[in-house]
Design a protein that fits this description.
binds D-gluconic acid, 180 residues, single chain, binds adenosine-5'-triphosphate, P-loop_NTPase, Gluconokinase, globular, ATP-binding, alpha/beta, 8 helices, 5-stranded parallel β-sheet
Length: 180
């Protein structure tokens, strides 16, 4: 779909969204839904991890700041290319710490974060159920301990990860329509 067609479809100006939160909170579910509904470009942040990071997580070891730095740089580069192209874009990225979010927004990129908040109990149940994903449920405690919830001084939209994804998508699209 062209940019013009997407605008006509939903009446929305392009936005540059990072769908964030801990593992299992629903980033991929919400991001793919938004990108499909709005005709915006989508990037799965997990696909930008260096293979060594995926190997580390697969074997139950949390990533360090140093591990995440090259991955965040690739996420930033992807976002910058979308902003330069001027079409709406949606990236999944855990973006757990404020410093990581600052790295994503560097160079004045007009990024907005959508933080999906889900209770630890629900997350644990989802990760235990999920199959075919490299991230083990055993890393959930470190994900929760690392998360610095975005502050009110950050560009963040907060949504509940415990509502049905369709409800969250409707809420977000309504929010974008209201804000113009
Ligand atoms: N709102 C929801 N209610 C119930 N289940 C959900 C919801 N959103 C996602 N799920 C399910 O929870 C699991 C995790 O969702 P998803 O892969 O979208 O999360 P994620 O944040 O992208 O995870 P990760 O960062 O580990 O890749 C999936 O099995 C998905 O189907
Ligand atoms: O910052 C991190 O620790 C990682 O990005 C993780 O959050 C995973 O990549 C993701 O959640 C996949 O399950």
């Amino acid at each position: 779909m062209t940019v013009a067609a997407a605008r006509v479809k939903m009446g929305l100006e392009p936005r540059f969204l990072v769908i964030m939160g801990v593992s299992g909170t629903g980033k991929t579910t919400i991001a793919t839904g938004l990108a499909t509904r709005l005709g915006w470009h989508f990037q799965e942040g997990d696909a930008l991890h260096p293979p060594a990071n995926v190997e580390k997580m697969s074997t139950g070891q949390p990533l360090t700041d140093a591990d995440r730095a090259p991955w965040l740089a690739l996420c930033h580069d992807w976002l910058r290319a979308q902003v330069e192209a001027g079409h709406g874009a949606v990236l999944t990225c855990s973006a757990l710490k404020r410093a990581y979010r600052e790295q994503l927004r560097a160079n004045g990129l007009p990024i907005e974060f959508v933080h999906i908040d889900t209770s630890a109990t629900e997350l644990a149940a989802r990760l235990e159920r999920r199959e075919g994903h490299f991230m083990p449920a055993s890393l959930l405690p470190s994900q929760l301990a690392t998360l610095e919830v975005p502050g009110d001084d950050e560009p963040v939209i907060r949504v509940s990860g415990e509502k049905h994804p369709d409800v969250v998508l409707e809420e977000l699209i309504r929010h974008f329509q209201t804000e113009g």
